[in-house]
Amino acid sequence: MSVVKSVVLAIGLFGIVIFAVACGDDDDEGPASPAVASVAASAVGSAAESAPASTSSSPRAAGGAASAGAAPQSAAPQVASASTEAGIWVTGTGAMSLSPDIALIRLGVESTSPSVTEARDEAATAMDAVVTAVKAQGLSDEDIQTTSFNIWPEYQYQEVITNGIRSNTRVLTGYRVSNDAVIKVRDLDAVGTIIDDVVDAGGDAARINGIDFSIEDPGAYTTELREDAVNAALEHAEHFASLTGVTLGKLVYVTEIGGDTPIVQPVAERAGFAVAAQAAAPATGISGGSLDLTLTVRAGFAIE
Question: How far is residue 270's CA from residue 199's CA, in Å, rounded to a whole number?
Answer without folding.
Answer: 20
